From TrEMBL:
This is MFS permease. Residues 33-411 form the Major facilitator superfamily (MFS) profile domain. The chain crosses the membrane at residues 35-53, 73-90, 102-120, 126-147, 159-176, 188-206, 239-260, 272-290, 302-320, 326-350, 362-381, 387-407. It comes from the Bacteria. Signal peptide: none annotated. InterPro entries: MFS, MFS_dom, MFS_trans_sf. PROSITE patterns: MFS. SUPFAM superfamilies: MFS general substrate transporter. Keywords: Membrane, Transmembrane, Transmembrane helix.
Amino acid sequence: MRNQFREPIKLQYSNFHIDMTNSDHITSKQPVSRFLIGLMAVSAGITVANIYYNQPILKEIAADLGSTESQAGMVSMLSQIGYGLGLFFLTPLGDKINKKKLIISLQILLIAALLLVTFTHSIFQLWALSLLISMFSVSVQVIMPMAAGMDSENRGKNVGTIFTGVLIGILAARVFSGSIAEWLGWRYVYLISAGAVALATVMLQIKLPNVPTRFSGSYPQLLGSALQQIKRFPLLREVSLVGILQFGLFCSFWTTLTFYLSGEPFNFSSNIIGLFGLVAIAGALLAPVFGKRADKGGSKKVRFIALGLIVVSILLMISLPTSIPALVLAVFLLDMGAQAIQVTNVAMIYTLDESSHSRINTIYMTSFFTGGALGTLIGIYCWKYGGWLGVNLQMLLFALVISVLLLKEKRKRLANIEVVEIAKA
């Protein structure tokens, strides 16, 4: 029988070791102020938006810099690549370097890169700066685990609030950049963003606490340790697989929705299509509610309910493909379900070893954004060969695979409970 109280775990790596308590250990049980969580959420949204500003203004960029549309399109691709590189190579540093210092340093570098964009006169320069902007934007992925470790009692709620800020930043970025580019020019998008990031950075410098770190190894050992988290935690593997499919489904939908609404029978303009983003934001605002429910031990139930909302949304789009009210409702349900799964997933992985939060987050978020890239690619092919029905069937397949993973995890958990009860008897 296992000891009732948990003993420290020692991990040995070559020439260093980490002493830590069991994965449920949390340093702080003191509530974090709502203002600080709100500030972190707003800062995260302002920062992550920089990855998506380029998407609606690629034509303006191509015309201004004398490049082809395909060359301008590389800006968007390099932004995704840069974020992926930052996720793997920079965010693990949150376990080695003071998180506040890391966040502020990345924000300052981001401001510098944004300002340099305003002086760019070559598409090749913009390529390089887009890569750097997205790499430095991963400060968001240091903010999130920092919030998770600051208040164990409200972990899910706080993470849900910050993730809501992230999602609103992503969804609002396209509306903001399109409007600013139309009135002032595309360079002002980055200039205004630099000012917003600078203001957020000053506030974070004043308000963020200093959180001690425990990792004492070298940087290569840190990256190696990040990969070891996959083997170390079965929960991380299961949640990462769910995250890959959930974000893949989400990106398939949003990538192809523009194609669908701009063609027959709708023929909507980009402004009207952008309004669907507002519906998505409304769904995202409910994410903290699901995070709070996960804090009370209902993470498994929350994910099943959320998956049910996604399935209902897809069936609604299949059965009423040309109904605008049905599509609006479907967007709301789909977004609410997808964000509920994401917030719950993140809350679950932050119940694991606190001293490895940044490395654990690195593995999950790298998997998550890989799923988004794959989902986008698959969605485009499904649209090309199967139209809107093909996309919906692909999303339904992803949802069914998620349900299989959740049911498998539930059976495993019930089996473990059975074994414990037999052992007690």
